[in-house]
Amino acid sequence: MKKYSDEVFATSLVGQNMAVICGAAGNKFLLCTANDFVSPWLPDSLLMFFNWVDSSGKSRKDVFSKIRGFHQAVIMRPEALKKYIPIMDSLTRQHLKTDWDPFQVVKVHPASRKITLALACKLVLGLEPEQTQRFSDSFAVSLQGLFSLPINLPGTTYNRALKEIDKLKQEFLNIILKRKKMVLENGEKAGSDILSRTLLDENAHLLSDLEIALYLVSLMMPSYESTSAAITFVLKYLAELPHIYDMVYKEHMEIAKSKDPEELLNWEDVKKMKYSWNVICEAMRLTPPAVGAFREAETDIHFAGVTIPKGWKVLWSPFTTNKNPKYFPEPENFDPTRFEGDEPTPCTFIPFSTGPRMCPGKEYSRFLILVYMHNVVRKYKLQKLIPDEKVLYHGGPYPASGLPMRLQPH
């Protein structure tokens, strides 16, 4: 941006001609205004899952369009999301008892991945935590392959990922087949998980079993990768900043004191976590859980006096705004008050993207991070064991050593 333009510049990424759209105006243009002229695009290594549906002769664009429709119809209904909060709380409490309480030191990143996958399996597929281990290994290997060179030779990361993805596909198809039978026999009593609700939807017949499987993966992958990253770095900043931790702790203890010890969190409790949400937003500003998204120009498009030719790929990234002093004064400082009162300038802070293709799991992720934070800060103070631990990127950010923390129970 400094060398070429703070609005749009050309480069080459993943072997493609790439236009990088920058700033609030660029975000608004690409994510809101230009949707009729661009389509989602992924590098070859990221298309492994989407090859499931190619053999049917349907274009990926058609499949994406149908899946977006189900995101809107099934996932974003507030009344359904609110019912998930007590389940999130219950599973998080159990997770801390088994994976945190017995130990003096915990690696936060692997632990957060474990709970986000367990919750995704429960809420998306209707599986109990003890049934999720078979997914954990496959997801871990698959994610390594998603961001590797797409060389399909025995022994390569990509080849191993393809094998695990085939296993996942069969697992999902088996689950869908069994759940269809349950829905047919029991109707509304089949379950409140997303798979059951999808099969009960009046438009469910529009999706094949493979498309339903892809739809479920598109819900679970971001939770496993991005939501766990957000949790990890929220806890990192709480450990580094005692004054921020103390204010978060005070807010959550006030909520806890208003409830019986075994009473689970609900929607009204989450609404009270206003300062905590500001802290989460500031953590996501400084360390975005996702590093951007690609589009492909379907026709020549024009922005900031530049023509982006048809067929070129376009990149949006939160890094063009999140640490820009034009939008966030003293951008390296951790300051949750940025999010009090009026929100930041539109299209400057969009961790879940924005516009028609905004992440459908935004509210799900918000609830999960807040519930996890509530349970951790009520039980522990956290001490980082590697003060200057490196942050690496593999699709999203992760601490090089897993963010080991010493637990100091209250």
Describe, in plain words, how this protein is organized in 3D.
This protein has helices spanning 23-33, 51-54, 60-75, 78-99, 108-125, 133-146, 157-186, 194-200, 209-240, 242-257, 267-271, 274-286, 362-379; strands spanning 8-13, 16-21, 38-40, 105-107, 293-297, 301-303, 306-308, 313-316, 380-384, 391-394, 396-399, 404-409. Helix content is 50%, strand content 13%. The protein has a five-stranded mixed beta sheet. It has a three-stranded antiparallel beta sheet with strand order 4-12-9. Helix 4 packs parallel to helix 13 and helix 7 (157-186) packs across helix 8 (194-200).
Helix content: 40-55%
**N- to C-terminal distance:** 47 Å
Counting DSSP H or I runs of 4 or more residues, the number of helices is: 13
Q: What spatial order of strands do you see in the largest sheet?
A: 1-2-8-5-3
C-alpha-based Rg, rounded:
21 Å
**Uncertain residue ranges:** none
The general outline is: globular
Q: What is the typical, i.e. mean, pLDDT? A: 88
Number of strands: 12
